[in-house]
Amino acid sequence: MHTHFQEERAASNRRNILIIATVASFLTPFMSSSINIALPVIGAEFAADAVMLGWVQTAFLLASAIFLVPFGRLADIKGMKKVFLTGITIFTISTLICGLSPSVEVLIALRMVQGVGTAMTAVTAVAVLTAVFPPGERGRVLGINVAAVYTGLSMGPFLGGVLTHHLGWRSIFLTVVPLGLLAIYLTLRAKGEWSTPRHEPFDLIGSAVYGATLLALMYGLTLLPDMVGFWLIVAGALGLILFIWWESHTESPVLQVHLFFENHIFTFSNLAALINYSATFAVSFLLSLYLQFNRGLDPQTAGLILLAQPVVQALLSPASGRLSDRIEPRVVASTGMGLCAAGLAMLAFLTEETSFLYILLSLVVLGIGYALFSSPNTNAIMSSVEKQYYGVASATLATSRQVGMMLSMGVVMMIFSVIIGRVEITPAEHAPLLASTTLAFMLFAALCVVGIFFSLARGRVREEELHQA
């Protein structure tokens, strides 16, 4: 009887943790996708050029990417609940202040603070779900978690468009604040700690080198083709070599680099995630500008069209997660990567007269591909490591995702810098904007084709290891 009561209590606690992780996983993508729709209006209010508008998104991604791995390690050392609670609090406060920004520069700075808070919640959400749910249920709960991400993505363009159209872009930030407060309240009510603190030293030097490396690489990419950008990328590459050397020799590394050398499933799955997000993240950003500038739609109507992709993702993600519990994840994920390539290739043929039905169909294909890729790929990564590395594995996956998103926006901003230049978008720039958009989609489609091979490679390695065993 007592054992039965304990089991029910543990199951109830698992459900509460799933709700908390789901709310947190909804917030960030909702924020990002709704802001994409508002960017033209923000640009008009602050007289910001296309590259500066890109930084409204990129600053957030850069900050979160820099801090993901250090906070993942900190969660392993101090406990996941403490890190999560601090992160959701920082996110909520900075979101409120974002809605009061007096200039685009202040907004970009506050988006960086938002990124720090998001890093703390992102590394703990997937890790705690993997830690508290047994292997047979992992695909299901990770599928629910991914569905929350896609629900945020799907509601973002529509609600962001409605809010921007009727109440102004600042209302988007203010609408998110109550959800942040709800997540804080639920976390404070959750019973016990979510993981056992390990009380090991924190690798401050490795964290600093890691952050500086990412900053140099990303900022350098946005400055290309200037020579300053080239030298920053070289410095970033040298920083990456230094980081790997340091992590291989320090007693308590912030990132277990040996996982990449010894665990091929882990390595190729993270590479596949990096490539997939590099190729797909900027889609909503580009289409938001295309639909509002090139096609003259208002934010509300543009948001309705962009709704197609994330709705499909949200509907299919739980099913693809369950599918990866039964079928080798690389088969499902690789099929998804192929469909992503097809959807992006379709978008590379956009013109000023492309039918909206064609755009919707392209987004549906992309949405199916994304749903088939993401949940199985997450399942493959988290199931390939031992329990003691869940925090680091979750942080590494989140970093692959964030760096991919940064690279996606970095490529777009580089194309904008070369083709459009640092000017505010007016009707005179509509043709160069369309040329930039189609070029970006061509590059992204080619990148997804490359990603298929990385996604398949982890399966071949896995079969060889099983054969050797």
Description of the molecule:
- By secondary structure, this protein is an all-alpha fold.
- The protein has one domain: Growth Hormone, Chain: A (Up-down Bundle).
- It has helices at 2-46, 50-78, 80-98, 104-132, 135-167, 170-189, 204-223, 227-249, 258-262, 264-280, 283-294, 299-306, 308-326, 329-347, 356-383, 390-419, 430-468.
- It starts with a helix and ends with a helix.
Strand content: under 5%
Radius of gyration, taken over Cα atoms and rounded to an integer in Å: 21 Å
* Total separate domains: 1
Derived structural class: mainly alpha
Named CATH topology: Growth Hormone, Chain: A
Low-confidence stretches: 460-469
3D shape? globular
- Strands, total number: 0
What keyword list fits this structure?
469 residues, mainly alpha, Growth Hormone, Chain: A, 17 helices, 0% strand
Write the layout of secondary structure elements.
Blueprint: H1 2-46, H2 50-78, H3 80-98, H4 104-132, H5 135-167, H6 170-189, H7 204-223, H8 227-249, H9 258-262, H10 264-280, H11 283-294, H12 299-306, H13 308-326, H14 329-347, H15 356-383, H16 390-419, H17 430-468
Helix pairs in contact: 1-2, 1-4, 1-5, 1-6, 1-11, 2-3, 2-4, 2-7, 2-16, 3-4, 3-6, 4-16, 5-12, 5-13, 5-15, 7-8, 7-16, 10-14, 10-15, 10-16, 10-17, 11-12, 11-17, 13-15, 14-15, 14-17, 16-17
